[in-house]
Amino acid sequence: MKNHKTERTARQKAKQKVEFKIHMIAYIVVNSLLAIINLTFTPGYLWFIWPLLGWGVGIVLHRREFKLPPKQSWMDRLIEKEMEKH
Known about the structure:
This protein is an all-alpha fold. The protein has one domain. Helices cover about 85% and strands about 0% of the residues. The protein contains three helices and no strands. Helix 1 runs antiparallel to helix 2.
């Protein structure tokens, strides 16, 4: 049971890291394009900063989410307690 749980946790962490990297790549590409568009067409007002900051908050929260220890379900805790009894 412990080995299966360890593998499941490792898979979840790997998936979260891949998802975060995809999120970061999209953030960089989209905001770079917005900056280019902004600086090309309306250099007097730097509006690209607003989506950069807003999405940046989402990036920070996303990163923080997978840095926290994984939450254990109620059922998993019950199973572990029962296994400890035997």
